[in-house]
Each structure stands twice: as C-alpha cells, then as structure tokens.
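Long-time lurker. I teach an intro course on protein structure, and each term I like to show students one example going from raw sequence to a predicted 3D structure in token notation. This year I'd like something fresh instead of my usual example. Would anyone be willing to generate the tokens for the chain below so I can use it in lecture? Attribution to the forum is fine with me.
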Amino acid sequence: MSKSMKRLDNPKLLRQRAEVIAQKKGSGIVENLEKLTSTQIEAIVHELHLHQIELELQNEELQQVQIALEDERKRYFDLYEFAPIGYCTLDSHGVILQTNRTSALLLGLEPRDLLHHPFSNFVIHEDQDIYYLYSKQLLQSRSNPICELRMLKADQTLFWVNLTTTIVRDLNNTPQWWVVVSDISERKKYENKLQQIAQYDPLTALPNRILLADRLHQAMAQTNRHKQPFAVLYLDLDGFKSVNDTYGHKAGDQLLITLATNMKRTLREIDTIARIGGDEFVILLLNLNDIQACVPMINRLLEGARKPVLINNHTVEVSASFGITFFPQSLEVTADQLLAQADYAMYQAKSAGKNRYYVFDAEEKEGHRRITKG
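-- Reply from a regular --
Happy to contribute to a lecture. Here you go:
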C-alpha cells in the first residue's frame, strides 16, 4: 500500500493535514471576511447551508444505492446458492473453486467437501473417459458442448447428470470453467423404459427382433476384425400348439417364460437369445474357437427344451428343433441371409423328425444336406 493511501486510512493523519492546509489559507480567509457586508455573509452562510443539505442528500442517495446493491448481491447469492440446478466454478485443471448448495446436495455432501477437489473425483470410474474427452473437446472448441455421464453420491448411489460448461476469464485473464450440473436420472429411467419397450420382448424380457438385428450386425463386424466365428441358431418348439390348445394361452405363456429362462441360463454372458415371435427364438453363440465348440451348448439347449415343466399342476413337455448356420462363410453373406439359412435349417430338422438340430451347408446340393440328431 502507498504512503498516501496509508494517510487516507488514518483519521489522525488526515486531520493533521487538514489543519496545515487551513492554517496556510486562514489569513486570507479572515482578511476577505472583514471586507464582506453582513448581507454578503448571510448569503455565504445560506450557500454553505444549501451545500450541506446537498451533501446530506447525496449521502442519503449513496446509502440507498448501497442498500440496493446489498439487496441485489443477496438476491444473486440466494439465486446461486439455492438454484434447482448445480453450479460449479473450476480452474483450468478441473479443480472446484466454488460451488452452490445444490451441487453438494446432489452428491450428498457439504459444499466445503467439494472445494479444492478435482471435479473428476466425483465421476464414476466407468465414465472417466467420457469426462476426459468432454474436457478435451471444451479446450479445442469455441462452442459449449454438453455431456451426459454418471456421478457417485457419498452413499455410493449412482445418478445421471447433464453437464453444460462455459469457459470464461477472470480479472487476471485466467481461464475458469463455469459448469451447470443438472440431475437427469428420471429422464434416463424414462429413456431406459422406452428402450426396454422398443428392444425387448414384453413376455420373456429377452431381446426382440430389433435388438437381435443390432447384435447380429455387431457380431459380424467383430468377426471380421478378430476372425473368430459365431453360430446362429434358429429354434422352434415342437408341440407348442397342443399346449395352447389343451391348457390355454396363459399356460403357453408360462411355458415360454420358463423355457426362455432355462435356455438363457445355459448360455454364456457374451451370447444372445432373442424371442422373435410365437415360439420361435434365435440364439447367437459368439467367439467360437471352431465350429465344433458350439455342439455341447446346443445339446444342453436341446435337453433344456425337453425338460418337463409343471404348470397349474400339469406336467407339460415339449422339445425343440434347431437350425444352425455359421459366420464367416466362403461367400459374402448378409445378416438377413444368415437368419434365412438358420430358418431353413430349422425346418429341415423338423422334417427329419424334430427334437434335433440341422446344420446349414451352402455348398451341399438340395436333398443332400446333413442332418444330425441331438
């Protein structure tokens, strides 16, 4: 602080300076006053009185302005602190400099628990890459991109947030990130529910034809990269119609649910079983070392389909016919063609006596295809 500023802050020094100035000008003021008439003195006193009133009015106005500014500051603080969405200010390294109460409440913490910690500390491990790429995009783009990721509460509960960030510069020209944090967990639940309706069978909760098509295309792309074959199984239950006719459609639905659960249990986590309609299912067996590697799984599926099921005190038994095809093939083939091949093979298995599987071979001539009983 300069010497002049120190004098202004010290009332005693300020008074001493005023007395010095007054003494220097005092003689001239007295001589001038002696030459003034009483009327002139009264006019001067009046002017001084008016000036004093003006100063008082100005002081009052300044006080009102100060009160208004304080009210505005308090209003801004309340809007910031208790806003329904979270606000965070981060430094250029992503460390939290300032936060409002809502951000802290979203994480189940006190605001002081967030300060001076990297924002990434509260992002779940699985979404760290998403946050990193988002941060990189912010630095490379002049736009304000948004990001959706999951964060972790103090009680280890996951929740979804939407991040909208603006990069600004403070008075020292240092960049800061103003981050708006919005809880979108309810919206994500709704989206997941819509996705469940769109991509999953409502009866068995298995993937439907739409999701199957997506996974089939993914499997083909993965095989083209890693050269590991996969199998497509088209399954149709034998004798399912008689179950519906004898015991009713509710019993048939219960049988489908039970068999779907049993077959899913026999598969690996990387495999897919989908219900594509009625009593027809499609199974994708992925990452096979060779074609023969799927035979044990197919036999387990056949056994599972034959297993008796107790429904409404009635023992119900059916079997299954499988059609099988593999990818890749010697000729280029589409996903729809793979399903058509497996479908054709399934009908050949039924024609050969049911309760068995049939492997499609594109190179064999019609009428000379191999049928293998499970």
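Some talking points for your students: The chain has three domains: 3-80, 86-184, 200-372. Residues 241 and 252 are 8 Å apart (CA to CA).
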